[in-house]
Amino acid sequence: MEHLLDQINFFHDKVLLRGYIFGVIHAGLIVVGYYTGWSINRLLKIATNGYIAGIFGAILAHVVADFVASLIDPDIRPATLGIFLGGLTPLLLIPFFEKFVVKSKHHIVVGDHDDIKKDLDDHDHHH
Question: How far does CA 123 lie from the centroid of its chain?
Fold first, then answer.
């Protein structure tokens, strides 16, 4: 991969395009997951049957995408562990938010495209 990228002059501007490969891989994995239905949050929602699992799943999907993208992008690779651990850290806030933050009835549950459609349909029927 790195050898191929070295052949393209566009990628020689390391300052301007640092992290470009990371961005492409990260977003690409999320897009592929969306369209293939491969989903950590669907798995977690099925396993735990809850919206908290949806939130966990969404974060975990991004953390996994960050991890893979970090390993692939030679500019970002040295920061892989920090990105991975940093991505997991906000999950520690969930119990606090669950205990102290009142969720609005207008919040849409985090989930997959099918689940979001269902959430929206359910939301529309409650009016």
Answer: 24
Domain ranges of the chain: 2-125
Q: What share of the chain is helix, strand, coil (3-state, %, to 5)?
A: 75, 0, 25
Instruction: Quickly state the pLDDT bin for 121 (edges 50, 70, 90).
Output: low
* Distance in angstroms between the alpha carbons of the first and the last residue of the chain: 52
Indicate yes or no: pTM above 0.85: no
Decide if 40 contacts 64 (C-beta within 8 A): yes
Task: Work out whether the CA dihedral 45, 48, 49, 54 comes out positive or negative.
Answer: negative
Cα–Cα dist 53/115, whole Å: 13
